[in-house]
Write a structure and sequence with these properties.
Elements (H helix, E strand, L loop, with lengths): L4 H29 L3 E7 L5 H12 L5 E7 L4 H7 L5 E5 L11 H8 L9 E5 L16 E7 L6 H4 L1 H6 L2 E5 L11 H11 L4 E4 L8 H15 L5
Parallel strand pairs: 1-4, 1-5, 2-3, 2-4, 5-6, 6-7
Helix pairs in contact: 1-4
Bound molecules: guanosine-5'-triphosphate and magnesium ion.
Guanosine-5'-triphosphate (GTP) binds next to helix 2.
Amino acid sequence: MTRNDGPQKVDIVTRVLAANDRIALENRKRFAADSVMVIDIMGSPGSGKTSLLEATIPRLKETSGTGVIVGDIATARDAWRIALQGVPAIQIVTENFGGACHLEAGTVAEAYGKLDASAIDLLFIENVGNLVCPAEFDLGQDARVVVLSVTEGEDKPLKYPLAFHEADLVLISKCDLVPYLDIDMDSLLENVCEVNPRVDKMVLSAKSGQGMDDWMAWLAARMKMSGKMTS
Ligand SMILES: Nc1nc2c(ncn2[C@@H]2O[C@H](COP(=O)(O)OP(=O)(O)OP(=O)(O)O)[C@@H](O)[C@H]2O)c(=O)[nH]1
Ligand SMILES: [Mg+2]
C-alpha cells in the first residue's frame, strides 16, 4: 500500500456515490411519471423484511397494485416467497453484480424495467439484509423503512446509526417474542429517538398480526401524501 492509496480510495467511493445519486434522481423522476410510490425496506439479515411483505401484500390487494423488487447476495428465494402472494416480484442477485451487500440505483432501474409499471401503485424494494451499506445508496425511493427485530438488542440504533438516521419509519418487528427475551423496549425506542428524533416508530409482529393495522395506516397516509394514489 502506498501513501496515495487512501485519498484515491476516498475519491473512487465519492465518485461511485455521485454516479449512484444521478441514477437515483432519474429513478425518482421515472417513479413520479408512472405514479408509483416506492418504499425501500432495509434491515439486518433475518430481521423479518420478507415476512413483513408476506403479511402486508394480502392486506393491500383491495386497494393497490403492488410490486416488489428484492435484493439478496444469492438465491431467488425471497422473490419466490413474494410471488406466492400473487404479485410481480423481481429478484436482484447481487453476486451477479460483484456480490454487493446493498442495492444500487442502477440495478433497481434495470429491475424496474422488467415490471409493468401501469399495473403498480406501490413498489416495495426489499434491500439486501444489512444494517449498514444500503443506507448509503439512494435508490430514488419515496420513503425508507428500517425493520429491526426485538432479537437484535436495544443498542443497535446507537451502533449502526446511519440506517436509522435515514429512515422515515422504524418498525420494531417480531414483538410476539418479547415475553421470551430480556429486551428493554423503552430503551430500544429511546435509542431510535436519540439517533433520529423525528422518525416514525411502530412495534409489530408479522406472525401474530399485532401492530399491522398501524403499518397499513402509515402506508395509506404515505400514499396520500405522495399524491401517487390512483385508486
Ligand atoms: N416469531 C416471529 N418470527 C418472525 C417474524 N417475522 C419473521 N420471523 C422469522 O424470522 C426469520 C427471518 O424472516 P425473514 O422474513 O426471512 O427475514 P428477512 O429480513 O427477509 O431476511 P433476509 O432477506 O435474509 O435478510 C424467519 O424464520 C421468520 O419466520 C415475527 O413477526 N415473529
Ligand atoms: Mg428477505
